[in-house]
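Reopening this ticket.

The earlier resolution said the output was attached, but the attachment link was broken on my side. Pasting everything inline this time so it's all in one place.
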Amino acid sequence: MNHELYVTLPKTTIQILEKLLNRDWIIHAFNVEDHNAIYTLESIPDILYNNRINRIQYILYLDTNIYQYLLNSHKKSPTKETRDAVALLVFCQLCDIEIEPSLAAYEKINYIKDNANEVVDDLMLFYRIDNTKNDALMAYAIGNSNEYPLAEHPNIDKEVLKNNLIKYNRLTEWDSIYLIVLVCIAINQEKISSYEKLKKFKYWMLKDFRQSLVCFVYAIIFFSKTPLKKMMKYKATNLPEQKKQQIFNMTWDLYIMNSFIRNWIPKQKTKEFIYATDDKAFKKLLNIATQIQILGDYTPFKETLHKADYENLIKIWDITIPDSERIYQSEKWTPEYRKELIQKYELELLS
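Inline output:
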């Protein structure tokens, strides 16, 4: 049975889409030839049709910067960033895309309970902004007003929300990626060639830990002649707490990439995951990882890497070792093993 869906959009919607196109914050894995098709008027009824007729739920995750821009749209005077972040919110409301702020909140809290009250207050404010009327938000986004009336307080128990944020010591996968980041940094400190660094990193994942597509993509670009700006946030000359925060920030980037890829892989989809970030290096890496997942080989690096780096990658890509030599396949593979490795590399890098 064919279904039709009629959608009426405000005249100012085109201005919202132009702002989003200029920012190009959105990362998605939609089956479309033009990645920027999401910034067209046609995308809104398409998403609504999939949502309402095909029962596909669309969920957008925010990075901490865009999340903070949204909070600042109410807390501070308007800026281009706050107006554009609200434009993203307007777009999501028009498309019935659910905005999920949990990863941004987890990153801000960093599991330090002292931060919990502030993070919860910000979350409560976010929910009020998210529920504000679309026309008021649109007026703010396009510059017709400098403020907007907030929606009522959500019916959420702050203590329950706080306890949920601090309930777990770590999100699933977070510690594993944290360890891989530590090892990547440690190898980078060694006085060996970039080729040897990448090969050593690959062997370490295979033999001493386990493989991670997004972390390998990160290492391939980082250990090349043309690393992206701000890829390596760690500075050995900083104080221990600063270095730890820098490593945490890198871990969050890769954790979020990993989450996006894992959510995107299932073939029987009832959910579409979208991510919004203003980090250009992050966006580049995630797009490459997505293309590798689609094609199943290293060719997405051809346009990014220097010729010599690409040739070295071909040599390293298919390296394997027998299962009998892999810790991942042995009785040694335990949470305690991972914890010991983390402690070893923290001692080396954070002292």
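Reporter confirms the inline version is readable. Residues 13-166 form one domain. The chain has 15 helices and four strands.
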